[in-house]
Write a structure and sequence with these properties.
The chain is α/β, with parallel strands linked by helices. Helix content is 40%, strand content 13%. The radius of gyration is 23 Å and the shape is elongated. Bound molecules: 3-methyl-2-oxobutanoic acid. The site of 3-methyl-2-oxobutanoic acid (KIV) has 11 residues, from loops.
Length: 282
């Protein structure tokens, strides 16, 4: 007899309840195998629109479509049992009106099975966040450096320094009051991130922010070292996959060229040879 073990998946309310408690561990994932790995270690897995840059080779997240997010969301869903799954709303799918945001957020939830969506913006998005949360759509907010606004921000600059701190703090208070269950603080001056974490009642999830945040998130390809080209200051590499993969491919190429791969252990004897071997052994 086999006993089915069901793992209870974390919900937005569980993450919300972790404010000021054990740090919340978050990573992005875009595929089933990576989601399976992350599920063992993370409380929250984000299908980030960073998928456009790290998987599809786009220059920014601006070109990411709803279909891309849904396809990667479906893949990640198949790999998760326990972690809360959040899917990013891509650029252009929620800013125009709160009704548009509701339509697209509910499509993402229905098609991917995620329990929450994330969208970028502070005060300007507070009304939309309130509208969604009142209609059964848990929202993770994202303030500070909001990569979808790269063309108006003029670069991936640190936010919330000096006099700019007040603006970012206002954004944090606005999304918390609007009903977001958590807020990502991206590339925000450390002291400002610290102040926000103390000021708002929802968990803050830092990326390039502060160790005092209620949790941390990294883009999985960044922390695994899937690139050799660049390394943002806020990324700590826990592996060097690109380097290891390059060495593996180089070894494979050399063995194909000198015909040492495949070896006899990787090929199949034909039926006549196998029959002859059985006869000889009899
Ligand atoms: O798209 C993404 O991966 C994100 C994280 C950086 C928070 O928004």
């Amino acid at each position: 007899m086999s006993v089915a073990v069901t793992v209870k998946a974390l919900m937005p309310a569980d993450i919300r309840a972790r404010k000021g408690n054990h740090p919340i561990v978050c990573l992005t994932a875009y595929t089933t195998p990576v989601a399976r790995l992350a599920d063992k270690h993370c409380d929250l897995v984000l299908v980030g629109d960073s998928v456009g840059m790290v998987v599809h080779g786009l220059p920014s997240t601006v070109g990411v479509s709803l279909d891309m997010m849904i396809m990667h969301g479906e893949a990640v869903r198949r790999g998760l049992d326990r972690a809360l799954m959040v899917v990013d709303m891509p650029f252009g799918t929620y800013e125009e009106s709160r009704e548009m945001a509701l339509r697209n957020a509910s499509t993402i939830m229905a098609r991917t099975g995620c329990a929450a969506v994330k969208l970028e913006g502070g005060e300007t998005m507070a009304d939309t966040i309130h509208f969604l949360t009142q209609r059964g759509i848990p929202v993770m907010a994202h303030i500070g450096l909001t990569p979808q606004s790269i063309n108006t921000l003029g670069g991936y600059k640190v936010q919330g320094r000096g006099r700019d701190a007040e603006r970012v703090e206002r954004d944090a208070r606005a999304v918390a009051q609007a009903g977001a269950f958590s807020v990502v603080l991206e590339k925000i001056a450390e002291t400002t991130a610290c102040k926000i974490t103390a000021a708002v009642e929802i968990p803050t999830i830092g990326i390039g922010a502060s160790a005092s945040c209620d949790g941390q998130i990294l883009v999985v390809d960044d922390m695994l070292g899937m690139f050799v080209e660049f390394r943002p200051k806020f990324v700590k590499r826990y592996a060097e996959i690109a380097k290891d993969a390059g060495q593996a491919m180089s070894a494979y190429a050399a063995e194909v060229r000198n015909r040492s791969f495949p070896g006899m252990e990787h090929v199949f004897a034909d039926a006549v040879a196998s029959t002859a071997k059985i006869a000889a052994q009899a």
